[in-house]
Amino acid sequence: STWVLLGPFTSVKPSGEPVGTNTDEDIATAQAGETYRFPHPTIPVRYLRIKILETWAPANDDHAFISELTLYGVAE
User: Fold this and answer.
1) Distances (CA, A) of 59 to 8, 16, 54, 74
2) What is the DSSP string of 5-41?
3) What is the reported pLDDT for 76?
């Protein structure tokens, strides 16, 4: 209840294929990674919690991996 929503973000599957079916384009997009920008200004925070609601994997594959996370910004 004390968490502050910094923004909702959505990853769009390029092929539009059903969950569990990934095309070469889907795989390339996943491997390239995505960039999300927080709305500015944001409040200072110490911790980030990432809540994943859905993945491109089949329903019984209920986990996700973040292989790299880079945060940057302007210090005031």
Assistant:
1) 22, 16, 9, 39
2) ---------TT-PPTT---HHHHHHHHH-------SS
3) 54
What distance in Å separates the CA atoms of residue 45 and residue 4, rounded to the nearest whole number? 9
In angstroms, the CA 22 to CA 35 distance is 20
Instruction: Round to the nearest angstrom and report the end-to-end CA distance of the chain.
Output: 27
Whole-angstrom Cα distance, residue 9 to residue 36? 7
pLDDT in tens, 20-61: 888 999 999 988 988 888 877 777 888 888 888 888 877 777
